[in-house]
Amino acid sequence: MRKKEISMIILAGGASSRMGRDKSDLTIDGKTFLEMQIEKGEKLGISDILLSGYHGENKYKYPIIPDRFPGKGPLGGLEACFRKAKNPYCLVLGVDVPLVPAEELAALIRQSLHSDAKAVILSHGGHEEPLMGVYCTDLADAMLEEITERKGAVFAFLRKNGYECYESQAAAWYFSNINDSETYKEIARNHFRFNWKTVMRVDRNV
């Protein structure tokens, strides 16, 4: 696999029930979570970027891909996007982990270049992140079977089809899932002003 053979899928279709509004449109330092993830893909040289299940204002130049089978979770979004991707591999990234450094994604991609596994996912401190990985798009049919005949559990799918991990040494907070308002505000208080020396604008609607 060469770098130019990678597409990117940003999973942006979650219910956001704990946050109370669409996580994709929350902001950090004036940029939405979705914009931050798109910029990472562009920094990595990826031109085929797919926005899975995004329900917000269509202000991006990249296509929004709806689930073919709604309500099936992340695998439902991936199944639809794998069939639209222009390349045989996809970098998969959730919209709710906007702090992950592009450098870690680049390292993940580098490991996948030398792997025979159908999926290479990121791991940190022994915690595996199935929605932060590089997947073969030829898994689409297996995903269809998983979401239509079984529960559509991501790890069950990975165990059945095989995967390996890229072990990141980056600090754990970079991989924070920002799924509720308290986590959102905690990240602002405890990290941004001090670690990145910038002011995080906490959305007033959260």
TrEMBL record:
<keyword id="KW-0501">Molybdenum cofactor biosynthesis</keyword>
<dbReference type="GO" id="GO:0006777">
    <property type="term" value="P:Mo-molybdopterin cofactor biosynthetic process"/>
</dbReference>
<keyword id="KW-0342">GTP-binding</keyword>
<dbReference type="GO" id="GO:0046872">
    <property type="term" value="F:metal ion binding"/>
</dbReference>
<feature type="domain" description="MobA-like NTP transferase">
    <location>
        <begin position="9"/>
        <end position="153"/>
    </location>
</feature>
<comment type="similarity">
    <text>Belongs to the MobA family.</text>
</comment>
<keyword id="KW-0460">Magnesium</keyword>
<dbReference type="GO" id="GO:0005525">
    <property type="term" value="F:GTP binding"/>
</dbReference>
<protein>
    <recommendedName>
        <fullName>Probable molybdenum cofactor guanylyltransferase</fullName>
        <ecNumber>2.7.7.77</ecNumber>
    </recommendedName>
</protein>
<comment type="function">
    <text>Transfers a GMP moiety from GTP to Mo-molybdopterin (Mo-MPT) cofactor (Moco or molybdenum cofactor) to form Mo-molybdopterin guanine dinucleotide (Mo-MGD) cofactor.</text>
</comment>
<keyword id="KW-0547">Nucleotide-binding</keyword>
<keyword id="KW-0479">Metal-binding</keyword>
<feature type="binding site">
    <location>
        <position position="23"/>
    </location>
    <ligand>
        <name>GTP</name>
    </ligand>
</feature>
<dbReference type="GO" id="GO:0005737">
    <property type="term" value="C:cytoplasm"/>
</dbReference>
<feature type="binding site">
    <location>
        <position position="96"/>
    </location>
    <ligand>
        <name>Mg(2+)</name>
    </ligand>
</feature>
<feature type="binding site">
    <location>
        <position position="96"/>
    </location>
    <ligand>
        <name>GTP</name>
    </ligand>
</feature>
<dbReference type="InterPro" id="IPR029044">
    <property type="entry name" value="Nucleotide-diphossugar_trans"/>
</dbReference>
<keyword id="KW-0963">Cytoplasm</keyword>
<dbReference type="Pfam" id="PF12804">
    <property type="entry name" value="NTP_transf_3"/>
</dbReference>
<keyword id="KW-0808">Transferase</keyword>
<dbReference type="GO" id="GO:0061603">
    <property type="term" value="F:molybdenum cofactor guanylyltransferase activity"/>
</dbReference>
<feature type="binding site">
    <location>
        <begin position="11"/>
        <end position="13"/>
    </location>
    <ligand>
        <name>GTP</name>
    </ligand>
</feature>
<dbReference type="InterPro" id="IPR025877">
    <property type="entry name" value="MobA-like_NTP_Trfase"/>
</dbReference>
<dbReference type="InterPro" id="IPR013482">
    <property type="entry name" value="Molybde_CF_guanTrfase"/>
</dbReference>
<feature type="binding site">
    <location>
        <position position="67"/>
    </location>
    <ligand>
        <name>GTP</name>
    </ligand>
</feature>
